[in-house]
Design brief:
2 copies of one chain form a homodimer. By secondary structure, the first copy, chain A, is mainly alpha-helical. Chain A is built from 9 helices and no strands. Chain A is elongated and about 65 Å long. At the A-B interface, helix 6, helix 7, helix 8 and helix 9 of A face helix 6, helix 7, helix 8 and helix 9 of B. Chain A binds a DNA duplex through helix 1 and helix 2.
DNA sequence: CTGAAAACAAGAGCGGTGCTCACAAAAGTG
DNA sequence: CACTTTTGTGAGCACCGCTCTTGTTTTCAG
């Protein structure tokens, strides 16, 4: 018989949710390094030390926020790239656009996961699975195609990988369960790097004034990568 | 008659240099948001308030560090890409490698300029010129070639830019004084985005364990971009 | 050389931070 | 009801950025 959660457990999860919510709202105006537990406690009408019953340090809170952000972004990408009647190329660009939309909507959370590492913060084990989910979702829409056209990719400007790189690509292919050719892995990573780079530059205002909004530029990148991937 | 700097001026610039040096060393173990002026003053054997004679706020110090970082990186790229007997393709890859080497050698400074925006920090006017220097130096080795082969670029997978994008690309071409075709601007920005993205991912540990070191991966990206640029 | 002006340093202080610890109040359990 | 676990309290430590007043030192003009 499933005994439901005790009132105490309910209160606890409720409080945790509130803490996270307040942390996020605080994060939107400052940055991870300046997240103030005391301020959260204050808004929670709780004495400052009480918050340590929920998160034993600020880093722990930040880790929770990072995990949430990965999950959230991952889900958004999964939805955008879900298999359906659209062609692969369309699903690919939808996935990329979803990533940009998420990043523009929640720039501080994007910075949390793909921005520069936090102060002395070390990413614990907990974050690597959710991080993988994002990568999976990002590559998801295209791996099928890349699998069936094993030899075609590699034409689009990629040189034949050397021995070292080849090994690393195979390891990565294995780790991500892609089952595509090394060159395809390379092309996927290249696309990922460009998308992350473009978003990083845009969010931090590095696009020399000329690109506001950068919609068209981003779309051009995405379209180009689609071509390079042979979609 | 050039009256040399007064002793006081000498002491001042000397102190400023020391402050920056201490700030950098502090930055290598923490992050910009945690830079402590008090700690610097302490190591300088000076009372904490005295440091405000040199930088009137922490943000001002950070701005100075950012400007220095841009200049430093810019100089490194300029040296690596200087015109000489090497072919263009080689100068391009040397420039990209120089950027990576700089980033690996000074990850905190790279994060300062290309990482996620600092807390509540707003980049003041002073930083945009040095930032431009980096972009110039990065594009420098290849613009000549792109200029002389106006029509060739555009073949490598780039679709014809739409009207909006075309206008933005022309504005950017103008702003950077490139004088290359819109598609070439696009290709250059794409290369820049991928390089920044690759470095961001590498420095923040996003390369799924498999790429350590990521030398070969980075080189493959650079080589690929060279091909895409038609070098 | 002297005296005013400018630059610098000192020290106290304000309000804020993360985090710890001993203790009191609830909430759940036998 | 007594007992244990969990949650909240409040004081306190050592730090932070930054301001302000006071005193010292250096520069420079007369």
């Amino acid at each position: 018989m499933a005994k439901g959660p005790t009132p105490r457990e309910v209160a606890r999860t409720e409080n945790i949710a509130r803490i996270k919510r307040l942390a996020l709202s605080q994060l939107s105006s400052t940055s991870a390094g300046e997240l103030s537990l005391r301020a959260i406690a204050r808004e929670l009408n709780i004495v400052s030390s009480a918050i340590y019953r929920y998160y034993s340090s600020r880093d722990e809170l930040i880790t929770a926020l990072i995990v949430d952000a990965y999950d959230d972004l991952g889900r958004a990408l999964e939805e955008a790239g879900a298999a359906d009647r659209r062609g692969v190329r369309r699903r690919w660009s939808d996935t990329c656009r979803a990533m940009r939309e998420w990043a523009l909507a929640e720039p501080h959370r994007f910075a949390l996961v793909y921005g520069s590492a936090i102060p002395g913060y070390r990413a614990p084990q907990d974050t690597i699975a959710p991080a993988g989910r994002v990568v999976d979702a990002f590559f998801g829409p295209v791996v099928d195609v890349l699998r069936s056209s094993r030899d075609e990719v590699g034409v689009n400007g990629w040189s034949r990988p050397g021995r070292v790189l080849l090994g690393q690509l195979e390891v990565t292919d294995e780790a991500l369960g892609l089952e595509v050719s090394p060159t395809a892995v390379l092309a996927l990573l290249g696309a990922f790097a460009r998308v992350i780079g473009a978003l990083t530059l845009e969010l931090n205002g590095h696009f020399v004034g000329g690109f506001e909004p950068a919609d068209a530029l981003f779309d051009a990148f995405v379209d180009h990568e689609a071509t390079l991937l042979g979609l």
